[in-house]
Design brief:
The complex is a heterodimer of chains A (292) and B (309).
Chain A: H1 3-7, H2 9-26, H3 28-46, H4 82-118, H5 120-135, H6 138-149, H7 153-163, H8 166-180, H9 183-190, H10 195-232, H11 243-252, H12 259-286
Helix pairs in contact in A: 2-12, 3-4, 3-12, 4-5, 4-7, 4-8, 4-10, 4-12, 6-7, 8-10, 10-11, 10-12, 11-12
Chain B: H1 2-27, H2 40-49, H3 56-68, H4 83-118, H5 123-137, H6 140-154, H7 166-196, H8 199-206, H9 211-229, H10 231-248, H11 254-264, H12 267-295, H13 298-302
Chain lengths: 292, 309
Amino acid sequence: MNELEQTTSEIRSLSYLEDAWLRFKKNRIALFCLFILLFFCVMSLIGPLIRPYNYSDIHLELKNRPPCWEFWFGTDDLGRDVFCRVWWGARISLTIGLAAALIDAVIGVIWGATAAYFGNWVDEIMMRICDILHTIPLLLTVILLTVFMGTGLKTIFIALAINGWLNMGRITRAQILQIKQSDYVTAAKAVGASTSRIIFRHLIPNAMGPILATATLTIPSAIFTEAFLSFLGLGLQAPLASWGIMINDGISSMEFYPWRLFFPSAMITLTMLSFNLVGNALRDALDPRLRS
Amino acid sequence: MYLCKKTFILIVSLFCVVSGTFVIMKAIPGDPFMDERITEEVLKALHSYYGLDQPLWTQYVRYLKGFVTLDFGRSLVYTGRTVYQLISDGFPVSAQLGLQALCLAIPSGILLGTWAALKRSRWQDSTAMVISTLGISVPNFVLASLLQYFIALQLHLLPVARWGTFAHTILPTLALAALPTAFISRLTRSNMVEVLQQDYIRTAIAKGLPLFRIAIVHGLRNAILPVISYIGPITAQILTGSFVIERIFAIPGLGEWLIISINNRDYPVIMGITIFYSSLLLVSIFLADIAYSILDPRIRKVHRGTDHE
């Protein structure tokens, strides 16, 4: 980054995103994963509608059917269509993942930016709070909250919001501190740029990359946390079709009805894998140091 | 100074966990003995037996005292058993499983990461990174159930579940070690790549030393440091992983006890195990920080809660 780039900041910020997209596109695997995720998003909306069954309708006479033309992914021990349930699970997981990423991003960015902006003792106190929260494992928070508030979506959201944003807070703070001390911001201040201009033209576009990548990588861990809790019976409850619940049901009967385990397992693995790969690719693509 | 700060954070965190657990447990609406069949007198007797008739403040002080003397009270469901007994029954099993997983994960993670860094941008690198991405992306309960299905149920190579001989421990250990292995290998790779670009490594290469020797003697020593500072998160991964692994393989460990006691609403046991696990984690983070600062004196000056990843 030098003064020349600073004078043409408007063009640069546009070409930065374009450049990032070009580099992201070069990563074929990540691009493929992005398509998988888009497909999952679409299917989570229309998937349960294209089959004539409901995720919670019980048909005991049709129980444990293997995958066939009538039931594409088979049925479970209560005769529920696994295809419908899997896409309902996708709906739950994607909602939780995206919402958690959004919540974490908002809290983390505000926290990190405040700490970095005020500096001194404000920064010191805010970062010590982070340190302390960081040592308290997410899962124990969740378990205590579950005991306190009962199981359900609300508990999972609150637990994810309590210490999911810590990483984001640290990254935002580090980014902003680094940018604040950089030469081009000093130069912009010297030529009399207003604070808002510095924030919107310099701080935000430059800090955007790591924040976006971190937010993307939050999604798979949020999805995992929900499935993990539901698996243990501490998350969502039946008849909701969470992947964790389906896998837990599937394990008990995997010797005879393995499809009940395989389909939800494959879905959650593919989703987490895709988000991880897309997140890593985004981090590389948005890193200004790697620009060609 | 550094040591003081870390000790202070350790104590404050421990206090927060212990007090937070107490507050949450007391804030739960209702009573563990809510049952229409219980008469007034029985309820009173139960309350005084468990010390629930005392004022909150006295209960809190007693509870803090109990924490220091490792006395977490008695189980509400398994009458006559203390939380301490439950922990001393379950923890050795969990500890064996966890340590086995650590012993597998640390060397294999470091090896995989070093290998990837040495063969950077070649097929070996991509293979290692595919393995580690899979390790991070496949949830441990999925991996455990697939291992159980294919290796134990289909191929009959190892026992399906339960605890006993060494053969019983192999599948749970593998399932538990996958995530930390992937995590460590990525960490090692990125550190190693950075270290290999340093001047002293270039000098060593220029002197004509074999690359393998350089990697071991010069590279690894520096690349391993950040792994030590990540012992805390790795311990957390193993602890939380053990909850599901113990359930899937029907292992009588502490994680399984915790889940059972949550479903039973057995509050003293939940509190006791939560505090026990949190303390274990906090102490391991503390020790890792201390070890790190001893091994790398630079850290005392520069460390400002930055993220190494």
